[in-house]
Specification:
This protein is 49% helix and 4% strand. It has five helices and three strands. A hairpin with a 5-residue loop joins strand 2 and strand 3. It is globular, with a radius of gyration of 16 Å.
């Protein structure tokens, strides 16, 4: 069902059926979608979602990682939703860096890391302190110097603890 220019589902919630590029920007209707990570309606089990999200972030596709985390967030138990929402927000913060939006990047990196920090019991093996530290440091760097000194490697947030 479509209302105006926005796609809606049977419950009236907005759904954007247009394909998106690697940074989440809508492509023209009818364009072939090249970079879809997963069906945004299908939530993966937590361990698989974290693994796929990490791979997408490593590959420079944080918007796709956001979609993976968002799908889990919507079906997660109530006490874990903030954790998944926080991961999704950090991924969108990285997306805003790619899009050249420092204000959105800083806001979402901080908001996401704050949500993640409040969910230590729902970590699913994620190094919460590490993610919070890296997201905070990246937000601070952007606040201080903007986006120009950033390199692609600066946008890799490691979700899991590195053994050793």
């Amino acid at each position: 069902m479509t209302t105006g220019d926005r796609d809606r589902d049977a419950q009236g919630r907005a759904r954007n059926a247009r394909p998106r590029d690697a940074t989440g920007r809508p492509l023209p209707r009818g364009a072939r979608e090249q970079l879809r990570a997963a069906d945004e309606e299908v939530a993966l089990p937590p361990a698989e979602a974290i693994e796929l999200g990490q791979q997408l972030i490593n590959d420079g596709r944080p918007f796709s990682a956001h979609e993976v985390f968002e799908a889990v967030w919507h079906v997660a138990p109530e006490d874990e939703r903030g954790f998944w929402q926080g991961l999704a927000q950090v991924a969108v913060g990285l997306t805003h860096v790619q899009r050249g939006n420092p204000v959105g990047a800083v806001s979402l990196l901080r908001s996401g890391s704050d949500k993640i920090a409040r969910h230590l019991g729902a970590d699913h093996g994620v190094d919460i302190n590490g993610v919070v530290a890296v997201a905070g440091q990246l937000a601070d760097r952007i606040d201080a110097a903007g986006l120009e000194p950033l390199r692609p490697d600066d946008l890799v947030v490691l979700l899991r603890r590195i053994p050793g």
